[in-house]
Amino acid sequence: MTDLTPTPRRAYIEVEDLSVQFPTEDGVVRAVDGVTFAIDKGQTIAIVGESGSGKSVTAQAIMGLVNARTADVTGHVWIDGQDVVGMTDDELRKMRGSTMAMIFQDPMSSLHPFYRIGAQLTEAVNVHNKVSKKEARDRAIEMLHKVGIPSPEKRIEDYPHQFSGGMRQRVMIAMALINSPSLLIADEPTTALDVTVQAQIMELILELQQEYNTAVVLITHDLGIVADAADQVAVMYGARVVESGVIDDIFYAPEMPYTLGLLASVPRLNQVRAERLDPIPGNPPSPIRLPSGCVFNPRCVYTDRVEGDLCATERPALLPTSPGHMVRCHMSKEERGVVATIALRGLGREET
Amino acid sequence: MSAYVVRRVISMILLLLLLTFVVFVLFSLLPTDPARLTCGKSCTPEIIEANRHRLGLDLPVIQQYWEYLKGIFVGRTFAKDSPDPVVCSAPCLGYSFKRGEEVFVLIKEGFPATFWLALGAFVLWLAAGISVGVYAALRRGKWQDKTVMGISLAGYSLPSFFLGLMAIFFIVIRLQLLPYPSYVSPFENPTQFLQTMILPWIVLAILYAAFYMRLTRNQMLEVLGEDYIRTARAKGLPERIVIRKHALRAGLTPIVTAAGLDLAGLLGGAIITESIFSLPGIGSLAVNSVNDADLPLIVGITLVTATFIIVANLIVDLLYAVIDPRVRLT
Amino acid sequence: MGMANKGLRLAAVGAVTALALAACGGGSSSSSDSSASGSAGSGEPTKGGTIYYLTNAEQFDQIDPQRIYTGEDLAFFNGTIYRTLTAYKFSQDAAEGTSLVPDLATDTGTVADGGKTWSFTLVDGATFQDGAAITCADVAYGVSRTFATDVITGGPTYAISMLDIPTAEDGSSAYKGPYTGEGQDLFDKAVTCSADGKTVTFHLNKPVPDFNYTTTLLAFSPVPKASDTGEKYGDAPVASGPYLIESNKNGKGGKMVLARNPKWDAASDTYRGAFPDNWEVDYGIDPKVIDQRTMTSSGNDETAINLGVEPEQLAVVFKSPTEANPEYAGRAISTLDPYVRYFAINTQKVPNLKIRQAIAVALDREALRKNAGGDFSGDYADGVIKPNMGQDYAPTGMWDTLLGQKIPDTGDPEYAKKLIAESGEAAPTITFDYPQSPTADKAAAIVVDSLGKAGITAKPNPIEPGQYYGVVFDPEKAHELINAGWGPDWPNASTIIPELFTPTGGFNLSQYDNPEYNTAVDAAKVELDRAKQAKMWQDLNTQAMKDVVVVPTRFGREQRMTGTKIGPVYLWPAYGSWPYGQMYAGQ
Fold first, then answer.
1. ipTM exceeding the 0.85 mark
2. CB–CB of B42 and C7 under 8 A?
3. CATH architecture assignment, domain A13-230
4. Which of B144, B223, B235, B244 to mutate to test the interface with A (most CBs of A within 10 A)?
5. Are A127 and B236 in contact (CB < 8 Å)?
6. Over the stretch A280-294, which tens digit does the pLDDT of each residue have?
7. pLDDT in the model for residue A121
8. Taking the domains of chain A in order of start, what are their residue ranges?
9. Are B81 and B134 contained in the same domain?
10. Model's pTM, two decimal places?
């Protein structure tokens, strides 16, 4: 179990107090605010949250894809001891696609419609390796084969529009892993796909993770796919991590009201009553005007359990509740336990 | 694809036939009497009638049209029964009695100046328009972007005669940096050719580049927001490759359409620019043909210009398929 | 003279559509107007240099001497490459500038047989560009070409109507020109050469007192038979003057370059100055560019000349319609052109004089002039003879006395109504024929409007310009009021009054047929005393205005300019052109 406190830099990847701000005419947009986590090679961390919670920007900041001209990125992203924050464009570029790679939500639009699959794959090889055309092509075919594309030596000549959505995501995975990166960021990799295909793709990612011993950052709003895939989970809300821990902490001992809401909205096979699928009432906060106290305060139904007006006035800190399990909430540990029991009743998990 | 091309070419020919017919009928309905126009200063009704017969204008319109059409493929002879018949060899687009020359030959003579003018301006405005448009897009919202867009708006709204006159006035007349424009073939005297063409190229290019800057900028902004551009960056591609190979290529389609049609339009003559820079092109020929009420020449130029545009349309459509593999030519 | 065929006259009237064709202007001693700011240009005549002739035209209409018939072109080619038997004196003065001087002939001709026989003796030493001496045969051959009307088209045909050669009823000559040779013997009797080949004699079919004016036309210039290529002669004509055509390329960007004719003997030619070494005609230049180049006058443009100033520059260059701004003084001129614009009243359809007077009185001539371009477009006209016609002009008093009282330029609808009441007829309904153009449409609206104020109903009848004269010369089709314009062929009102106001005239749009008037015209035509004749034309002009045969609206005016080093700068009254043969490029 990894110690999530930032001090000893032991993990392969450590994100430390990462913030991303976009100055705009309407004010500063805080897209990511002090995100911290760490994982090792071969491990997976799932960053979970609604859209707008800052999870995708976190991923892009790690990749150095946040435009330095329009955004301020602060904090540290240590990859194998190197801080990618503050690297020059060119240093970053050299890392992208080789050390770290990324796959995206919509495989339909993530491949260039005008170029053949083969060309897009070999381009990824050639930009980081001095290899012959033949070698690059062989590598592309091998990767396509690995991600389960049938007769890859033929399909390599096809254009993206000649592939189905699932197949395109396989191509994207092949492209991401073609240079054996040590870090793979998968940004909602299954969201745009059919349910049946979703499982196959996740399985593929995990399989290849094992083979390449890659660290995976899985960005998702769907806790459903997290349970089987991740070792750790960080729940994001309003640009901040509100709860993090190993998979069991989050699934079986959640404490933050937002996490509770998320879990309650996950469809379960053993769930009988439809009304149990509770979406959290209200909307996520605007990243321009984050609430001054707890970011979740406006939507939280448990604020009366906190002394005074603390939830509205004071920002809670991310504090350990048990080893490796961090929670950002003003409620006492006892109150959090009570609340969790109430919230998760009927989901068939409070006994465990 | 080849089936598509064949089909398009056939429909193109049909369209041209229809066009020749419409143009022909339209001009035959004009109150102007072409026979009267042929006989210069001393005209008697007898001469007019004789000329009418010489020109075949005494035939029904449909038969005239047929003769005209036939002439394009096999040539024709005017005034067959006179001792001095006028032979117009194929492709015969008519005979200008005003100028005593075959319409096709006149257009052919005017074509090189127009062609070089259009081509040079085309290359310049595409190069300038696209590169500046990309530059502005990459600096969206910054002062560079605003400056470029401001200039392009100005260039867009400047009338070409103004721009042309200013160019002549300052560069040629006042500063004497260039000799007076006098067109020669580039194969005959490349230096004089360049000296003559450089200003009209620039003037015409400025007008068009303004539009292409805006078009390119907007296209680039749209494309740069696409997911596959993010993918390209995530691959670790250098930014210039991302821009050139991935973004520009994807944003090219509407630029190709506009460029193809603009070029075709220019091949029909840039009337004002040709006039100001004394270029003996099709634009000048068109103006003179209208001033002289030289009907056969007007019809001929109309047809040739329309043909350019129709052919350009086909080429643009074929280019689509080359640029965007998703486009199926069926 | 009224001998010219009708086709020729049509050419002159091209002026109506602003095509300055076939005009040989007249002279004037009247101080009221000649060249406005003409001057001697820059200093003394100097030899050398090049004069650049900037034109929007993409070619000369004709280069073949027998086919040239535009005033400006006649002056240009006569001043440079073709010599003629007689010529007009180079002078700014209207009378002097239209007086005759000998050129290829030793004098201005010897008349015999009461004006039916004219002889010219050729000067010694005159040669073609190949060095061959110019003989009587060459002059005769040149004239003979005009008879080949199927080949040599477009030029004046005076020789056909004047020479004593039988003609058929349709006016065609029994001589068919040198190419078929049909009737050659008839021509050879009409144009004879002395035994030494030095004297050419023309035998005319009736007395022509001013035949030596006719011989100023290039149609009477010599052509060596051996070099004649018929229709194509204009491509490689043989020069007799101080210059020859070195090269010519038509079209935009093209140019004609004239170089010195090495065989030209200055001693044989006292007429031309032959100052510049070269002439360069630059074709197809945009009129706006021509203005800019001439105004700026730097480099080669210091010795450039142009033929017109665009409307938008008029106020820049000129202080008034008669005077240039100081900056352009001495090199910009605004002068009367050869044309008179008028409305012909069809006297067959409007026989009542009072009604004709009412039409003239009611017209708003000020609005019409403004529509045509205002002050710079011309002056108010009082007849069909212009002040620049010299001795033939005298004010007619049309708008002061002839109509019974002074008529303002804006018209007098009340007085017009009174005239209609006096006519004993109802207020008429008339139709106004005019060649259609945007400007003419507006003019028609002014006609309708101003006549309407006097109770006259006018209907505009726009006619396609190419067919205009075909329509209005057809008595069946012509209406009551007809738009027209006319310029003389040479400075004698014999090319105006008989043409416009007699039944035998070629341009009698008014269909005027007044026996008394006809008799007076016939008398004037054969009057050999030029001063007496001038007085007769003046009276006939006044008489026609009094009878309101036409309503003159405007004496046309034109503007042109040169670079700073051109001299002399004036409008040569002879052709309403630059005095090419005398111009020089100053240093």
1. no
2. yes
3. 3-Layer(aba) Sandwich (3.40)
4. B235
5. yes
6. 777 788 878 788 889
7. 93
8. 13-230, 252-345
9. no
10. 0.77
